[in-house]
Amino acid sequence: MAKIYSYVLFLTLALLVPLGLCAELLSDQTGDGEVVVLAFGDSITAGVGDGTFPGDYIEVAPSSSSLPGYPGRLSELIGVPVIDAGIPGELVSDGGVYRFASSVIANDADVVLFLEGSNDAIFQVSPTEFKLSLQKIANIAASLERTLIFQTLPLSCCNHSGTRLFTTSYSGQVQQVAAQHGLTVIELESAWNTECPQETSCSLLNTPEGLHPNSDGYDFMAELVATTLQGDSPDE
Question: Percent of the chain having pLDDT more than 70?
C-alpha cells in the first residue's frame, strides 16, 4: 500500500461537510447486524487503469475485473465489505440517476460512496443538469434512509485535460447539494490538486490518457476515503 499522504488527509478532514460526523458514518442503517458500504460510480469506481504505475505510457487505460480499484483497497483498510458498483461509461445524468436506487436496495447498502461525473464532463452536460441529477440522488438516499457520502471529482490531465472545466464546476455542484442535504463530502478534487497541481502531468493518473487513476492513484483514493470513514486524524 502506498504511503499515507498526511498533508492531503489533513486538508481533506479540514474540508469535510458537515464536520463532526465521521464517527457515525459506518453504521448499520438497514438493521441486519452488519455494515455494508457501496461504492457507486463509473469506470473510476470500477477500477479501470489499475495495474499501471507512474512512468508507464498508457494511451488507453486497461480494465481488469481481478484488480481491486479503490473499493477493494478501501475494504481492506476499514475491515468491512465494500461493494464495487462502478459501471464504465455511465453518466450521472443518464444511467446513474436511474440505477442508483436499485443498486442500493439490491446490495443492502448502509453507506453509499458516490463518485460520478467524468463521463458527463466528456459529453459536456451542463452543470445545471448535473446538479439536478445530484438532487435526485440525494433525495433517493434520504427516502431509503441510507448514509450518502459525495465525493468531488478527481482532476484530469493530458489527453483529457479539456474536461477539467466541467469537472471543477461539477465539484462545486456536489458541494452545494451536500450542504443543502447535510451530507458529508470527501474533497477528492482538492486533495488531488494538492498532489498534482500541474495540468500537463499527474503521478496519480495513467498518462498520456489522463482520465483514469493508476495503482498509485487508487491507493491515494482509498486512503483518503478510509480516513474519512474511520474518523482518524492524520497522525494516527
Answer: 88
